[in-house]
Amino acid sequence: MYRVTDPDEIADGLQQMLNEWYADTGQLIQEFRDTYSQDSSAEINP
């Protein structure tokens, strides 16, 4: 069943989901860098 919804309400929800996705992805990227930059520096300078 469909109902009329305020477009701004939908856009705000989408923006919130996108912001959360960017925050989660940024955290995962930082964890990746932290984990593997330590490993690679150990291999370069034993």
Please outline the helices and strands.
Layout: H1 7-44
Structural features, described:
There is one protein chain. With 46 residues, this protein is mainly α. It has one helix and no strands. The model has no long low-confidence stretch (mean pLDDT 88).
| Uncertain stretches of 5 or more adjacent residues | none
Write down the secondary-structure element order.
H
Characterize the main sheet: none
The count of DSSP E runs of length 2 or more, i.e. the number of strands, is 0
Helicity range of the residues?
over 70%
Mean pLDDT metric: 88
- Tertiary shape: rod-shaped
What's the N-to-C terminus distance? 64 Å
The DSSP helix count reads 1
Compute the gyration radius: what is it? Answer: 20 Å
Structural class: mainly alpha
Estimate the strand proportion: under 5%
What would a concise description of this structure say?
This protein is mainly α.
Task: Please supply descriptive tags for the structure shown above.
46 residues, mainly alpha, 0% strand, 1 helix, Transcriptional regulator TrmB
